[in-house]
Write a structure and sequence with these properties.
It is built from 12 helices and 2 strands. It is mostly helical. It has one domain: Orthogonal Bundle (Farnesyl Diphosphate Synthase). Strands 1-2 form a two-stranded antiparallel sheet. Helix 3 packs across helix 9 and helix 10 runs antiparallel to helix 11. The mean pLDDT is 91.
Length: 299
């Protein structure tokens, strides 16, 4: 498939995700005033839909019927949206801008934002449980995998590490662990979810997870590089606050910009090699690798 046709297929996949996300959460008139509005504001904000598209492309690459992983993909995006709401709170990053507009707690209020995040996390697992196109065993496995990505070895742990690093020093390995738990774990869950829907198991499933882990590590460096270059006068990235990680240990503070860029390229090469080991994943690789050519950060 040439680049134009591939990009068109990705846009069609993104549009399918957008439509389904809007269907899977209540309309604004179907809940307490403000709450459902905040849920839809956070979930349906413009973004690349990196995680759900990764799920769908991985599923397709490894032989799943088109659409079979759509609801699972949307569940991953709900978890991601919830994590962004929490990450932006005054007690966390105290961010004012996300995906090109006011963060959820600024657009509504802090209490409503917290409740919206809890509601989205809860809904994500409900969406998987309700997916009658998947076997009971597969739904259980997908729920367990997503729960681990959210929990005490995943996003929750990563956020705690992120808060704890402020004003401290971290080794490169500790920075990688932080970046993996903040970004990579949900990418791993998303890619492996698509593979599981396609019936992939064992070593191939592990290799797909390694692909996503390395992409996550590379993506976090890319995000830090964009921030650092913008602060140095190279132009502000779209859709986010600048300087929120100023003074915090990153691979850029440890290795410098060029060293961090070389490390990022190494992670991308390792990601491609992992997919080769899995014996597939061309579309997932083309999509993920293509994001590194784009300075927009609303993923």
């Amino acid at each position: 498939m040439d680049d134009a046709a591939f990009l068109q297929s990705v846009e069609q996949t993104r549009a399918a995700v957008e439509r389904r996300l809007a269907q899977l959460v209540p309309a604004e008139c179907q809940g307490p005033e403000g709450l459902t509005g905040a849920v839809r504001y956070a979930l349906l904000a413009p973004g690349k839909r990196f995680r759900p598209i990764l799920t769908l492309l991985t599923a397709r690459d490894f032989g799943a019927v088109d659409g079979a992983a759509l609801d699972v993909a949307c569940a991953c995006e709900m978890v991601h949206a919830a994590s962004l709401i929490l990450d932006d709170l005054p007690s966390m990053d105290d961010a004012g801008l996300r995906r090109g507009r006011a963060t959820t707690h600024r657009a509504f209020d802090e209490a409503t934002a917290i409740l919206a995040a809890v509601g989205l996390l809860n809904r994500a697992f409900g969406v998987i449980a309700e997916d009658s196109g998947l076997s009971t065993d597969l739904r259980n496995r997908l729920s367990a995998r997503l729960s681990e990505a959210v929990g005490f070895r995943g996003l929750t742990a990563g956020q705690a590490r992120d808060l704890g690093r402020r004003g401290g020093a971290l080794s490169n390995d500790e920075i990688d662990l932080l970046n993996h738990q903040k970004t990579g774990v949900l990418l791993v869950a998303a890619a492996q979810a698509g593979a599981l829907v396609a019936g992939v198991e064992d070593a191939r499933l592990t290799a797909i997870g390694e692909f996503a882990r390395r992409i996550g590590l590379a993506f976090q460096i890319r995000d830090d590089l964009i921030d650092a270059e913008a602060l140095a006068g190279a132009g502000a990235p779209e859709g986010k606050d600048l300087g929120k990680d100023a003074g915090m240990p990153t691979l850029i503070t440890s290795l410098g910009i060029e060293g961090a860029r070389r490390t990022m390229e190494g992670y991308l090469a390792a990601a491609e090699a992992a997919l080769a080991e899995a014996g597939g994943g061309e579309s997932a690789w083309r999509f993920a690798h293509g994001l590194f050519r784009d300075r927009k950060v609303a993923a």
